[in-house]
C-alpha cells in the first residue's frame, strides 16, 4: 500500500510522496503530512556498519514509497557524494558530556545541504514519473542561507533552472560572495534594492500570478518551491537521526534499544520534526529538546500551549533561527490534535487573524516527548567559549544555542541519557561571532575572522570559503524591488 500524505488543512486532499514533492505546498494552504507511518526494520546490528547512503536508502524507500529502488539509488548517489567533505557525510563527534552531529560538511556548510542536495533529484524524478514535460524553475527569496544551499543543490541539474533574489544590503559579505560566485549554467542570482520581505512578497506574488504561469507554460516552464514546507526536504532529515544512533551503537557508547536525546537548534521546526518522525518509525528517542534563541516563541509554546507571535522580532547572532512564525510546527499541531485537519485549519486561521492560538485537547504523550528552552546572546557566546575551553572545538552560534539549552536542561532535570547536539552550521559560516566569543576580539572583518578562526581551531578551510575572497563574481545584476518579474522574464526569455 502506498503511503498517504494528507494536507494538514483538508482531510480530502491526499497525495502520494512524489505528488507531494512536486506540489510543495498544498493548494489549501496546508502542508502534506504523513497520517500513518511505514514499517522500517531498524536493526542496529546491521545499521551500525551501514554507510550513510545505505541508511538513506532504508529510510527514504519507506517514506517515499512510490519511488522505485533504482530511482532512489539515482537520487541518493547524486546527492551524497564528494560534495560533502567527508565520506561519512554527517560525522558524530564525541565531546565532554555531549555528542555533536555535524550536519555542515556539505557544499554550503550549513545543514540545509542535507536535504537540498537531494531535493532537486526527487523533483526531476517525480516530474519524469508523472510525465511532466516542463522544465522546473525554482524561484527563491533568501536572507542568506537557503538561497545558496538551493543553488548548490540545483546547479547543473538537468531539467531545472533556479533564480535567487537577495536583499543587497541584508546579507553578510561571506554570504553575498557565496551566492554571487555560484557556478552552474542554470543558476541566476539577483540582488534587489529592498529588504528580505520585499523579495519574499514578490516571489510569493509571482507564484500566484496566473498570467505569468501561462506565459511560462507556453515556453514549457513551471515554477516550483524549495522551501522547507516541501516534504521532500523533511524526509531526508529523518535519515541522519537514524545514522547518528547507529554511530553511537557502533562506537559501543550505547546498546541498541537504549534511549538517546536530541537537542535541535530550531527555527522553522523542520529539523526537530524530522526527529519526531524518526521516533515514530521506532528510533529509541528519549527527549527532543527544542532550542531557541531570544526569539523564544517556541519555548513559550511548549510551556503554555499558547502560540503567540505578537512580539518584537529580535536580530541575533543565530539568524537562521530568527523566526516568529515557525511554519513546520503546523505539522506537529496536526498530530497534537489527533490528525484533525479541521481543527488544525481553525488554529492556523486564528494565528493569521489574531496572531495567536491556544491548544485545548492536545495529545499529552506527544507533548511529553518535547522539552524546550532558549539561550540569550550572552549565554550563546559563553557556551562557544566553554565548549572551546573544554574540548578545543568551536561551535557555530546556532549549535551553541542548542548546546547551552541542553546544558541547562541536564542540570535542571538530571536526565543522564546520552544526548546528541544537532550541529547545523560550521563556525566558518559565522567567523566573526565565533572568534569574538573565543578570543574576546571585536571589530574584525569577515575575512580577518576567517583567518583567525583557522589559527585557533586548526580546522581546514572548507571549500565553501576557501578562495572566496578572490573567486570571480559571476552574478552582478541588481534590480529595484519592483522589477523582479522583469528580471525573471528576461532571464527565462519569456
Ligand atoms: C535553517 C537553520 C536552522 C533552523 O532549522 P529549522 O528546520 O528551520 O528549525 C538552524 N540552524 C541553521 C544553521 C539553519 O540554517
Topology, pairings included?
Elements: E1 5-7, E2 10-15, H1 17-23, E3 32-34, H2 44-47, H3 52-63, H4 69-79, E4 92-95, E5 98-102, H5 112-116, H6 119-129, E6 135-141, H7 145-154, E7 160-167, H8 173-180, E8 187-193, H9 196-207, H10 210-218, E9 221-224, H11 231-250, E10 260-265, H12 270-280, E11 285-292, H13 297-304, E12 306-308, H14 329-336, H15 341-354, E13 356-358, H16 364-368, E14 370-374, H17 377-391, H18 397-413, E15 419-423, H19 431-439, H20 446-457, E16 478-480, H21 484-492
Parallel strand pairs: 5-15, 6-7, 6-9, 7-8, 8-16, 10-11, 10-15, 11-14
Antiparallel strand pairs: 1-2, 1-3, 4-5, 12-13
Helix pairs in contact: 1-6, 3-4, 3-11, 4-6, 11-12, 17-18, 17-19, 19-20
Fill in the keyword field for this structure:
494 residues; alpha/beta; Rossmann fold; 6-stranded mixed sheet; 5-stranded parallel sheet; globular; binds pyridoxal-5'-phosphate
Summarize the structure.
This protein is of the alpha/beta class and 494 residues long. Helix content is 44%, strand content 16%.
